[in-house]
Design a protein that fits this description.
By secondary structure, the chain is α/β, with parallel strands linked by helices. The chain contains eight helices and seven strands. The protein binds NADP nicotinamide-adenine-dinucleotide phosphate.
Length: about 270
């Protein structure tokens, strides 16, 4: 397993939810963590928790959808903290409404945060990884990046893009024979604020996932340089199911309840 001591891990959306838990676990395994987020109060709280546990943490207020901010802050991080070894593109947003009820600004925001931000962070940190021929880029996508469902048009579009981003980037890095790894993470719904209110029809097949377990598996996947982490296992069946006629694929998806999952979505109250 990779030793994370002397490594620097940058986590976007690291103040809350999954990002916070990943940060705590990476820090506990010896990595110095750098957190970027727009949730200022949570950023300060998470940093206090990590430093109180005796680990190294640095935080920056950063809207990852703003390209110039990402480039400027990346330079600041390199000067103040050092070379970033692991980038975890985790910040994410969702509109959570049927497509025509989503405001244009919300649709744009989903794409800017869930996709374009990955371009800017990787453009900012990959050159150093190439120079040292080492590094790891983690893309937190979603099961919504493997199968689209009702109420998640903006989100699925952005997560399919994130999935493709990881796959194409991995191909480029391999083609250049670089020792830089990528991991794409595709969980089904996770208990927490982002998807508060969602429901599942068959919890034994498609459980609402435990954030602690998901974050543990992400850290383990990074340590093992696993290229793809999908959970729960049923999500894998999407690919063979696509060999069936679309009408049957759609019926299976609807039977599993995924097109009703967002009916009582509340999301973040803040
Ligand atoms: N939760 C799930 O069920 C689930 C399932 C599959 C995949 N995922 C993915 O997992 C990742 C983390 O999700 P989560 O549940 O931990 O979400 P979360 O609890 O909402 O945390 C996301 C964090 O990102 C921050 N953020 C939002 N926009 C940002 C921006 N422009 N710049 C910087 N930070 C920003 C949020 O700040 P604010 O609170 O101020 O918005 C929040 O602190 C996301 O990519 C999500 O799509 C989540």
């Amino acid at each position: 397993m990779t030793d994370f001591s002397n490594k620097v891990t940058l986590i976007t959306g690291g103040a809350c939810g999954l990002g916070r838990l990943i940060a705590q676990k990476m820090a506990a395994k010896g990595s110095r963590v750098v957190l970027w987020d727009i949730a200022e109060e949570s950023l300060a709280n998470t940093a206090s928790e990590i430093s109180a546990a005796g680990h190294q943490v640095t935080t920056y207020y950063c809207d990852v959808s703003d390209r110039e901010t990402v480039y400027d802050l990346a330079e600041k991080v390199k000067k103040e903290v050092g070379k970033v070894d692991i980038v975890i593109n985790n910040a994410g947003v969702v509109c959570g409404r049927p497509f025509l009820e989503c405001k244009d600004e919300q649709l744009e925001r989903t794409l800017r945060v869930n996709v374009l931000a990955h371009f800017w962070t990787v453009k900012a940190f990959l050159p150093d990884m190439i120079r040292t021929n080492s590094g790891h880029i983690v893309t937190v996508a979603s099961a919504g990046g493997i199968v689209g469902s009702a109420g998640l048009v903006d989100y699925a579009a952005s997560k399919f893009a994130a999935f493709g981003f990881d796959e194409a980037l991995r191909a480029e890095l391999k083609k250049q024979r670089l020792n830089i790894h990528t991991t794409v993470v595709c969980p089904y719904f996770i208990r927490g604020e982002m998807f508060a209110g969602v429901r599942t029809r068959f919890s034994f097949l498609l459980p609402i996932l435990d954030p602690e377990k998901v974050s543990e598996r992400i850290v383990k996947a990074i340590a093992l340089k696993k290229q793809r982490l999908i959970m729960p296992p049923l999500v894998y069946t999407t690919w063979p199911l696509r060999l069936l006629p679309v009408s049957i694929f759609d019926k299976v998806a609807t039977f599993l309840g995924i097109n009703d999952a967002m009916d009582e979505f509340q999301g973040r109250r803040s």
